[in-house]
Amino acid sequence: QYSTWDMFLMSALYGTLILRNPFTGEYIPWFARDWSIGTWDNEGETATKITFRLYENLRWSDGTPLTSEDVAFTMKYMYDTGGTFYGSVEMIDGIDTDTPHIETPDPYTITIYFSVQSIWFLEMVGFVPIVPKHVWENIEPEQVEEQGEYVTTGNLTCSGPYVIEGHEPNQ
């Protein structure tokens, strides 16, 4: 349903926790200044957990600080919408409940607990575009297409290197 251009536009408007260096393939910080990968005991089974520490000067295009609460909200919201990034977040422990196993001990730290162990989780959640909680928390996931911020205001509160200045229909 979404085109390559839609994904390109999304990546220009909404940043992610990490990026990949196109020349070396190494992960590089973007919103997360650093991260650590560990394990935890999930009812007798070893499972992965990742702690991200965000840069403290991140802001949304409306001037609101971008925090760990935005990241936690995004992970749950992407699951609840069932859209493009559902597969990236579906293994977060408790994501199918009202209280997924995600900790935000301060505005710049987030720990995400997964239900199993995998080497792929950094890439999966690290590349999810982060959306602003203060904008999207009042939009029901099943109403994104009809009640999303752009549909209702003609604007998008962004975090990427670009912002929307205007829109010309059919252009």
Task: Show the helix and strand layout.
Layout: H1 4-13, E1 18-20, E2 27-29, E3 32-42, E4 45-54, H2 68-81, H3 86-89, E5 102-106, E6 109-113, H4 121-126, H5 133-136, H6 144-147, H7 149-153
Antiparallel strand pairs: 1-2, 3-4, 4-6, 5-6
Strand order of the largest sheet: 3-4-6-5
Mean pLDDT across every amino acid position: 91
**N-to-C SSE string, H for helix and E for strand:** HEEEEHHEEHHHH
**Overall helicity:** 25-40%
Structural class: alpha+beta
**Major sheet description:** 4 strands, antiparallel
Low-confidence stretches: none
Structure description:
With 171 residues, the protein is an alpha+beta fold. The chain contains seven helices and six strands; from the N terminus they run H-E-E-E-E-H-H-E-E-H-H-H-H. The strands form two sheets. The chain has a four-stranded antiparallel beta sheet with strand order 3-4-6-5, covered by helices on one side. 29% of the residues are buried. The mean pLDDT is 91.
Question: In short, what is this structure?
Answer:
The chain is of the alpha+beta class and 171 residues long.
Which terms summarize this structure?
alpha+beta; 4-stranded antiparallel β-sheet; two-stranded antiparallel sheet; 171 residues; 22% strand
